Amino acid sequence: MLSKLYLYIVHSIFLLFYKKEYKKYMNSRNISEIQENKLKEILKNNKDTLYGKKYNFDKIKTIQDFQKEVPLSKYEDYLPYIEKIKMGEEHILTYEKVKIFELTSGSTSASKLIPYTDSLKKEFQSGIKVWLYSLYKKYPSLKFGKSYWSITPKVDFQHKENSVIPIGFEEDSEYFGRFEKYLVDSIFVNSKDIKNEKDMDKFYFKTLLALVSEKNIRLFSFWSPTLLLLLMEYLEKNSEKILKTLNKKRREEVRKYIKTKEYYKIWKDLKLISCWGDSNSTEYLKKIKEIFPNTVIQEKGLLATEGFISFPDTEENLSKLSIYSHFFEFLSLDNNGIYNASEIEINKRYELIITTSGGLYRYCIGDIIEVISIKNKVPYIKFIGRRGAISDLFGEKLEENFLKNIMETYKQKIDFYMFAPSKNHYVLFIKTDKKINIEDIESKLRENFHYDYCRKLGQLKKIKLFILTGNPEREYIEACQNKNQKLGNIKMTALSKESGWENIFNGYFQESEDK
């Protein structure tokens, strides 16, 4: 077991690399200049690319020039360029070499290939360094213990495209610098071969074995809180299989806490859990707080495969725009106007537009944020949801927030729910200990004019209820993994736009009472 002094020394050396970046952020005042310089740097580096020549990067002198010359873009606009990069052509989107394609699928089954360069990785690091330095500054006791950072297992992804550029996932630890990664690897709690584990049952087992074997864990870093909940459930159901691998003293100690469901006592020095807390993660976060009542829960900032958007400010307990990472624009949901980071307003909602060193230019990422506050001219933002989280089979335009508001009217305990379309109706997949009145759900849905109109026309049939009997969170996560989503990117949703979930979830259709 590593001594606490050794851990403290390693952490201290590690954080020395991040102090400069932290101070730079803390002393930032002129956000307009910072953002304009970032944009000019990206354009200068990529002016001699195929994309840069097409949109006259070399003639762009101001943000206004950039917005005039370069159109807003979505992923489909990049497909011809991605094809060229896959074939080994260079200087297409970036002058710098593409090192890897990151897979992402969002809410659809089609995979997207996001090009990664060393410069893009540095843009991610720019925000990560500030977050970590501020985290250890706020909670110095973290330096005396070990940390668990979530790992993405190498399940059998169904991606079979031909590409001379590797297609895969960058692990969380890859966002550290080379020397820092060497240091943090010595203080991480992870099974050595866990990255290569393809079987999810073995993944959970090996992860928990590593976790319960180590008493001195101070930090848990997950993306989705559901993963931690699934681990605790697996620990309870498979406790004896895991416990028999421990020494006698630790075995009896952990067994006692599992029996009493006092999981927080397994890691008595656990100081902080970092995970998502916005949007659909809110309810799962509440469960985490119940399981670990004495642990600080810090909500993560907003991070996408395409870019690093924000990081938690430990002093403000809010998510701070990572102004040195990329060039940001904001599309107003009020008037469709486009604003720079220095122009957005408190309590307003915007869709994010990013320009990065990975070759995405004025890319509409689809994430909706709300500006919570502005301090020292830097915006603090909150993730609200995805733009386009709407299902529209026949013009009914069912929107995710509308469905969430319907379910919030129920005071009973609901463990999981998700709406999804079928051929000519919708299905509510739900796990609860009380009976749900499907007529009440239907009535609330028909308060939506477009849904009601489709029902009157006979285009849509009445909603059906699918009672979940298994572990829907785990079943959902594994289904997303099979569609090429990285474990760390999977978020629970109240509305899936895909059909066929009755073939994935364990459960049964509840018969309608009018039959």
Total strands: 20
Task: Specify the structural class.
Answer: alpha/beta
Shape: globular
> Residue ranges: pLDDT <50 for 5 or more in a row?
106-110
Mean pLDDT: 88
Query: Domains counted in the coordinates: how many?
Result: 3
Amino- and carboxy-terminal Cα gap: 65 Å
Rg over CA atoms, rounded to whole Å, is 24 Å
Please describe the biggest sheet, giving its number of strands, its sense, and whether it closes into a barrel: 7 strands, antiparallel
What's the total helix number? 17
Neighbour order of strands in the largest sheet = 8-9-14-13-12-10-11
How large a portion of the residues is in β-strands, by DSSP E?
15-25%
What proportion of the residues is helical, as a percent range? 25-40%
What does this structure look like?
The chain has 17 helices and 20 strands. The radius of gyration is 24 Å and the shape is globular. The chain folds into three domains: 1-27 and 119-299, no CATH class; 34-95 and 318-386, no CATH class; 390-509, no CATH class. The chain has 515 residues and is of the alpha/beta class. Mean pLDDT is 88; it is low at 106-110. It has helices spanning 4-16, 19-26, 31-45, 50-54, 63-69, 79-86, 118-138, 178-185, 200-213, 225-237, 239-243, 248-259, 282-291, 400-408, 438-445, 449-457, 472-482, and strands spanning 100-104, 112-116, 146-149, 167-168, 217-221, 272-275, 296-299, 310-313, 318-321, 327-332, 338-340, 349-355, 363-375, 378-386, 390-391, 398-399, 414-421, 426-432, 464-468, 507-510. Strand 17 and strand 18 (426-432) form a beta hairpin.
